[in-house]
Amino acid sequence: MNRRIPLALGVLLTAAALSACAATQAAPAPKPTSTRSKQPAPVVTTAPSTPEPEAPAAEPTCETIISPGTVEALTGQGWTAKAEEFRIGETVLEGGLMCMWSDYDTPSDHGQMYAWAPIDESTAVTAQQHLVQEGWVRSVEEDRTYLTEDPAVALATDEDGYGMTYEFGDGWVKFADTKQSLLLIEWP
């Protein structure tokens, strides 16, 4: 049998396939015929695009203000959260949330507290003054202000001796049952 025929047939089929592809390509669109009018063509200007406003952040929940790993650990031991308004003294912090995590099916004094709220500078100053008057200890580290309960009266403390602590940042405040636990709050 002659091996040249299959090779020639392959070349012929390839050429036919290429010409078929070229035939299926769209022909260039015909140029529109021009009709003259006495009015000039309108000038199209492009206005600078304005960015879409950002969607507001979701509302904080007990499951979103703390890290996912913390939620998993707490729910894994059968705990659930109860949400309350976040207050400092008599001041309710609008848009804030206080979460009390515990096993509410079993009577116990064990639980965890986490809170977060937006706060303006004036309210932050007033809240800090109130806490200091109530005996809370104020400290400043870098750009954060901490107010922690007096260690002499704290029910529970972290390994550094801090009990319940507020952390004030730029436009927000956090609260946890120990200063170390503030690290678990990740909102927003």
Largest sheet report: 7 strands, antiparallel
| Helicity level | 10-25%
Overall mean pLDDT stands at 78
Which stretches of 5+ consecutive residues score pLDDT under 50? 1-56
Strand order of the largest sheet: 1-4-5-9-8-7-6
Q: Any idea of the CATH class of the domain at 68-184?
A: Alpha Beta
Rg, nearest Å:
34 Å
Terminal-residue CA separation? 78 Å
CATH architecture of the domain at 68-184: 3-Layer(aba) Sandwich
The proportion of strand residues reads: 15-25%
Helix-strand makeup class: alpha+beta
Shape: globular
For this structure, the CATH topology of the domain at 68-184 is Protein Transport Mog1p, Chain A
**How many strand elements?**
9
Q: How many individual helices?
A: 3
Description:
This protein starts with a helix and ends in a 12-residue tail after the last strand. It has 188 residues and is an alpha+beta fold. It has a domain at 68-184: 3-Layer(aba) Sandwich (Protein Transport Mog1p, Chain A). It has helices spanning 4-24, 68-76, 121-133; strands spanning 80-84, 87-88, 91-92, 97-102, 112-118, 137-141, 144-148, 165-169, 172-176. Strands 1-4-5-9-8-7-6 form a seven-stranded antiparallel sheet, covered by helices on one side. It has a two-stranded antiparallel ribbon with strand order 2-3.
